[in-house]
Amino acid sequence: QVHLVESGGGLVQAGGSLRLSCAASVPTFSDYVWGWFRQAPGQEREFVAGLSWDAGLIRYADSVKGRFTISKDNAKNTVWLQMNSLKPEDTAVYYCTARWSRRSEVPIFFAEYPYWGQGTQVTVSS
Fold it and tell me: Is 105 exposed, middle or buried (0-12, 13-18, 19+ CB in 10 A)?
């Protein structure tokens, strides 16, 4: 059984930083694709960042390239999303997600990920 718990969200001023964490209970953490999605009110859930099981492939949404960094620690069963230079349009609920795969892939469609956390709210004030 896979269980994901996000933390680290909050209220921050534009230009500030936040670091989201995703603590994962999973049999073999290193065998999963890990991703972050976000959903703003009235909008569809959108891909933010993801990395393949071996971290050999990392993808970012164009809107966050150069500002956000995804990383993981297999020993700690944790995935992080470092968010810098935050903008009001980054305001959303952020979700950690996982997909078992030892292929070099990072899907960007939410339907391809079977495991999700409960989400953490990020609010960026102008």
Answer: middle
Residues in a beta bridge with 66: none
Q: What is the mean pLDDT of residues 94-101?
A: 97
Residue 1: band (very low, low, confident or very high) from pLDDT cuts 50, 70, 90: confident
**What's the Cα-to-Cα distance from 102 to each of 2, 95, 113, 116, rounded to whole Å?**
17, 22, 14, 19
CA proximity to 21, closest of 81, 86, 68: 81
115 contacts 2 by C-beta, under 8 angstroms: yes
Structure tokens at 122: 């990020």
